[in-house]
Amino acid sequence: MSTRVEEITEAALALPNEARAMLADRLVESLDPADDGMFHRLWADEAQRRLQELRSGSVAPVPGEEAIDQLRKKYTG
Is the pLDDT of residue 32 over 80? Predict the structure, then answer.
C-alpha cells in the first residue's frame, strides 16, 4: 500500500463511527455505480435479517466499543 493510501486510511479510521460508515458506503458505491441499487437491496435485506435475529433473541447484541475491541484483538495480534 502506498504511503498516501496509508495516510488516508489512518485519517479515515480516526473518524467517528458514523462518518466512517458514510465513507465506507461512498467508497463501495464508487466501485460500480451500475450495481448501486443491488448493493442497497442486499444491505437492506441483511439489516432486516439481523434485526429479526435480535428481536427473536437468537443473537445477543454486542456494544459497539466491545465489538471494535474484539476486532482489533483479532486483526492486530
Answer: no
